[in-house]
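My main concern about presentation is that the manuscript never shows what a single data entry looks like. For the editor and my fellow referees, an illustration may be useful. For illustration, here is how one protein appears when written out as sequence plus structure tokens:

***
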Amino acid sequence: MIFEDFSSAHLAVLLSVFAIALVIGIVANKSNFCTMGAVSDLVNMGDSGRMRAWFLAIAVSLIGVVIVEAAGIASVDSTLPPYRGSNFAWLEYMIGGVMFGIGMTLGSGCGNKTLIRVGGGNIKSIVVFALISICAYFMINPFPGTDSTIYSTLFYPWTSPASLSLSTQQDWGSVIGNVIGTDVGTTRTIIGLLMGAALIAFVFKSADFRSSFDNKLGGITIGAAILAAWVVTASLVTIDADGEQLSWVEYANPESWDMLEDDPDARPKDVAVQSFTFVNPIGQTLRYAIKGFDNAYLTFGIVAIAGIILGSFLWSLVSKSFRIEWFVDFKDFLTHFVGGILMGIGGILALGCTFGQGITGVSTLSIGSLIALVSIIFGSAITMKIQYYKLIHEDDATFVKAFVSSLVDFKMLPESMRKLENY
């Protein structure tokens, strides 16, 4: 689509994102697509259905991205956040991922599930949302009257030195292509198609999954939505201003605004090629409020959040599942309180959440995204196991005993080190 001014193009992008997010909200609620639930089902019941739905979403988005890149329709080389960036912050991906995994377990769901639950009437998730928002905001922005952020105070001095500065981008295609001397684009296409095909084969190997309409609906729709957002932000609109044709992203950069003599103070924030992630956008909602709801701070992420909450709300009305839910007791409140803090901090540190890194980031073939994904799953799974042991061994289950026994269950320690029986 071609527009004569940036405002019209920007509105078209935001409305498109809102529409896609609305579909995510409806389908995620209807299909019970939940990444924390996927880990829980697998760890506690041996049911891989929702995990396979998550992997199907990854496969669909991954195959879609390599196809649109190969066809020249869109590029995800330069994105927000920089999934393929050459700064390989492996330690931050791991620590942030584990923190987020623990947090989403304590908080009853990841960032996306929090939005789905808000739309369904869960007031507990509104509290979790607020905590994520505050922590995510101050991970990036300084505390009032200081130059210090949570990140600069607690993490940067010891995590940043561990980061590696790569000579290439950090996606599998760039790294392997550089090693074996092949074209990066071709290498990305081959690796992406092979990985996507392997995931699809694994997903549909299960007869139970093949018979589950909801799991297939959730996986395919979420994966397609991730891809759609990439295409929308990378190539949906073109602005033809004063004979100068620029994309939505190109027009919004400082050089273009200077060239076209537009007011730089009115330039919308966080305009970039991007797809769905939720921790940083939840933090952006606080910034939006602090800035007096200035439209310059109405971002892709904020519009996406609104769309998902509304979509979930609409489905909860249609399905008659809307209900108000509050904390059972103070312990329940405290658990969710800690979960929200860990998600807000960990999600920023890891550059994303179960959606942002686990699907969107992996669709770019980012190695860092894969590390974050594995770390999130581990953090969530180990937390669930510890909770299980403390539940069935009320008096004997110290944290250390529960932790060690959980590692034994995951085959990370020998059976001889088991401290608690797994009934």
The first helix runs from residue 6 to 31. The radius of gyration is 22 Å. The longest strand covers residues 238-241.
